Amino acid sequence: MTVSRRDFMRGAVAVAAAGAMEGCATAGELGKLDPYSIGVISDIHTGLPWSKQQYRTGREYPWQPDMTKSLVQEILSLKNPPANVIGLGDISLAFGETGDYEVAAEALKPLTDAGIKLTLAMGNHDIRAEFLKFFPGYDKTTKVPGRFVSVVETPNADFILLDSLKEPTTRGSYPACTGFELGNDQVKWLEKTLPALEKPTFVCSHHMGDALKIGKLCAKSPKVVGYLHGHHHHWMTNYLFNGYSDKAREIRMMGFPSFGLDHDVGWGLIRTEPERAVLHCRTRDHYFPAKRTAAERPASWDAFVRDWDGRRITFEFA
Predict the structure, then answer these.
(1) d(C-alpha 168, C-alpha 178), whole Å
(2) Backbone angles phi, psi at 26, to 5 degrees
(3) Among 188, 221, 223, 245, which one is most buried in terms of CB atoms within 10 A?
């Protein structure tokens, strides 16, 4: 991409510095992790350069590893960084190569080095066996055998990370890695788990809840307070509901940007309280990997950044 990555990086550093001054709602000792805040990242898509790929992606993304590292540093620069960071899938650049996860693990390592608990979900560009080589243990802690299903507990709300990956039968083909599914065992686990929840809970997956055909199940479960997803590489807000009867419920569904690849670029910080959670949208750029010079940058890209950066999205627990 010929839009200047250096200009982007300078902007990212400046915004990170501003973020460091903002602090957290639960401000305490400088540098102490905030158990009431959760960082949300999605669609990292980081990996090997084109020349080293076994399955060629067809396009170079040379800015991606540094972009991810700069956003990681932004999270760490907060006065009180979140005690948990969750990822909504698509860690691999494209085809789930072993080297992709090596690059991703290196980029994300400063989070865990700082004591932050990192929990990742699978996306349609991932391969479970390759992922485990650099992010071990998910096959042992999963709630559903054969899938990587995690529950992240925090004082005010919990987060269920589902596994919607349908692994492709053909490696190296974009059409082959566009499928998604939860599978019967995961759906049965949800049908048993969600109605019995005792604590406000977010259901999270790489794909949208209605696409996975669990929208009504989530909406009718009293303690499910929101649905978080990635996949589309841009901020989006919508709702899941289970009909129009007097007993019907509606919950907010929120889509997250890419963590550095393209379209909306940024991450989210969810700050929880006893009765609600507030998502702080952190938009660091918007770009499409077309061959444009910095002078040809469309004004719409800057408008997208202005429209989303600093936006607040509220999830009420009542």
Answers:
(1) 8
(2) -100, 45
(3) 221
**Is the pLDDT score of 6 beyond 50?**
no
Q: What is the pLDDT of residue 296?
A: 83
Measured CA to CA, the distance from residue 76 to residue 175 in angstroms comes to 37
List the one residue out of 13, 120, 21 whose CA is nearest residue 80.
Answer: 21
pLDDT at 257 over 60: yes
For 160, other C-beta atoms within 10 Å of its C-beta total 24
Concatenating the DSSP letter of every residue in 288-314 gives --SS--GGG--HHHHHHHHHHTT-EEE
User: Taking CA 275 as the corner, what is the angle to CA 282 and CA 199, rounded to the nearest 5 degrees?
Assistant: 100
Residue 212 domain boundaries: 5-316
Global pTM reads: 0.91
Give me the number of domains the chain comprises. Answer: 1
pLDDT at residue 1, as a whole number: 39
CATH number at residue 80: 3.60.21.10
Separation of alpha carbons 238 and 251, rounded Å: 9
The predicted pLDDT at position 18 comes to: 43
Place of tokens 């790489």: 206
Cβ–Cβ < 8 Å for 203, 195: no
